[in-house]
Write a structure and sequence with these properties.
The structure is a homodimer of 348-residue chains.
Chain A: E1 9-13, H1 15-25, H2 27-43, E2 49-50, E3 54-57, E4 62-69, E5 73-81, E6 95-101, E7 107-112, H3 114-132, E8 139-143, H4 149-160, E9 164-168, H5 172-182, E10 188-191, H6 195-198, E11 204-207, E12 228-231, H7 244-249, E13 251-254, H8 257-263, E14 276-277, H9 278-283, E15 296-299, H10 304-321, E16 325-328, H11 339-346
Parallel strand pairs in A: 1-7, 8-9, 8-11, 9-10, 11-12, 12-15, 13-14, 13-15
Antiparallel strand pairs in A: 1-16, 2-4, 3-4, 4-5, 5-6, 6-7
Chain lengths: 348, 348
């Protein structure tokens, strides 16, 4: 059998390869690189083909495809969301993604994206906070200490200069796990016994809880003037974390309004409630924080462009450093019209 | 590093593995198995989640995602269409696909689909013809002798009992390639010098040309009463093969009307021109051929359910026979909330 051509072999970054890549660069440096790519791509937002995500719902979860393209590269992510998976010892969210060349349609990268999504979500939160949080913020409350928590803590350290993280989870075992994993990371870690205690003295409040239907992690009286809220956990219809009254007091910033109005905290508000698109703050077209007493809220749900930024970062890194397998995924007959002949000759 | 669990390793069928699988079963037997799966799935058509395909267009081609689900399994195909690729020695169409479990969202199969799409397209054509072509059809005209041609010839032999194939292509080299590849397959092969000559005595006319904008492969006067036309090549906006007058004389059968009205031959007709859905013919809910003088036309564009049928066929075959690699594609921490801990421990 003739060996397949270079183009027919698609670089594949396995879970193990992703872990080795992240560890060799360092988690914080990887978060900084992702933040740079995400900010670059948000600044050229109008260049992207923005398709709404394509969801297939069942009684127990959802499977989604999230495509986008900048005209040179095309990317998509496959991602599921199955809250009941955790009880079965499975991940609530697993993901993989692909990058392809628009000019030929040939894939150039297949990558695990469970770890990469955790990294890009945290990097996006930090990019938003760098633009919106009060100047000199050093203390962050981190409410919800599950799979995303450590990534958030490290992104805010690496990108926003956070020095203390105040941890709270309804399950103390989750807080203990988070504190254990972050020991030695250079952060002051303060485990707390309530959300109220966690937000004491915090300039940034990150909510990243899971598996809650219309939960109220924060009530109105808990949130003082001048804070930045990074609301990560409310990210699908029926799943919110903040009391509606906080939303009406806050200046709200979002990724892509048509998606956030369905999936984000603002699903609790009127469909014409004013929101600002983060990309416009990053380009300077819209104002971010304009008053030290203002409550800013980043209502994050995750958007395809962030995955695109993450995939192109990995694509560039493996070109530099290697670490990808090559998958024989694309049939590549010598004569493109002779697909059947290729099959025939494979038997000879 | 702890080895990943069984579920975290996704079976992958490479191009080479697909060729070995097809050759070990035999092309005709594979086509028959695919036809069985496609017919089963068309008969339970209402059970499927039918999302329109999600296309990303550029000046030189298109990249599409085609998802569907039957409530137990979810499948999607990635496929590009770049007519100019052939001149660069690349495939016009390349594809891969994935099957996942709806109950957990975990992938259960990743597979090459360039070869598999060629097989399922031919099997679908034959399933339609078995229901629509005149009884006892033995002679097929095959107009367009490119990458799909041999698969069509063998599917019509294996599934419809075609004994003679009359070949024509605008490029005699394509016809010669096709005749060479099919020598010894048990078909009488008759190379022809024109489309008119190819359709002489044919009860079935298959048109499967590529890279043509509003071409007219068949004109009205060429098509006599009683034939079945299998129109495969007209499959995207601006790409058709048949003169409009043939369409108005024919009884038209389609896969999924909302898609075919945009992509198929019937894009030339009014949006309310009557068509019959193939699945309804297969269940008996609608009539197929009702008159020996009737011209039946299967306006095939390819639908996600056919890819689903093909993927589940391959999934069952590799469970029986092996042949898949296992890809470390899904992150699988021992504690689902401890994704960061898994990363940390990988460095230890």
């Amino acid at each position: 059998m003739t060996p397949p051509s270079h183009r027919a072999l698609v670089p594949f970054v396995s879970v193990e390869a992703m872990m080795r890549l992240v560890l060799s660069i360092g988690v914080e440096e990887m978060l900084r690189r992702l933040a740079t790519a995400i900010e670059e791509d948000f600044r050229r937002w109008p260049a992207f083909d923005k398709t709404p995500r394509v969801a297939s719902h069942s009684d127990v979860g959802v499977i989604e495809l999230m495509p986008t393209s900048d005209g040179a590269l095309y990317g998509f992510k496959y991602v599921n969301g199955h809250p009941k998976n955790m009880k079965e010892g499975l991940q609530t969210v697993t993901a993989f993604g692909l990058l392809a060349e628009v000019s030929t349609g040939y894939p150039v990268l297949l990558s695990e994206m469970t770890i990469l999504t955790a990294l890009r979500t945290a990097a996006t939160s930090a990019v938003a906070a760098r633009a919106l949080a009060p100047k000199g913020a050093r203390v962050m409350a981190l409410i919800g200490n599950g799979a995303q928590a450590e990534f958030q803590a490290l992104a805010f350290k690496a990108i926003c200069g956070i020095a203390e993280v105040r941890l709270y989870d309804i399950d103390p075992a989750a807080t203990a796990k988070c504190a254990r994993n972050l020991a030695g990371a250079g952060l002051t870690l303060t485990p707390c016994r309530s959300a109220e205690e966690a937000i004491l003295g915090a300039q940034i409040i990150t909510t990243v809880t899971a598996d809650k239907q219309y939960a109220t992690i924060l009530t109105d009286n808990m949130v003082g003037a001048g804070v930045h809220i990074n609301a990560v956990g409310g990210d699908c219809p029926g799943k919110t974390e903040l009391h509606r009254d906080i939303l009406t007091r806050a200046s709200i910033f979002v990724e892509y309004p048509p998606q956030t109005r369905i999936e984000g905290e603002i699903q609790q508000l009127a469909p014409d409630h004013p929101v600002t698109e983060l990309w416009q703050v990053l380009t300077g077209a819209a104002r971010g924080r304009s008053d030290p007493r203002q409550i800013t809220l980043f209502d994050s749900v995750g958007f395809a462009i962030e995955d695109f930024s993450a995939l192109r970062t990995i694509h560039a890194l493996i070109a530099e450093r290697g670490g990808a397998q090559r998958l024989d995924m694309i049939a590549d007959p010598d004569d493109p019209r002779d697909l059947y002949g290729m099959l025939l000759r494979a038997g000879a």
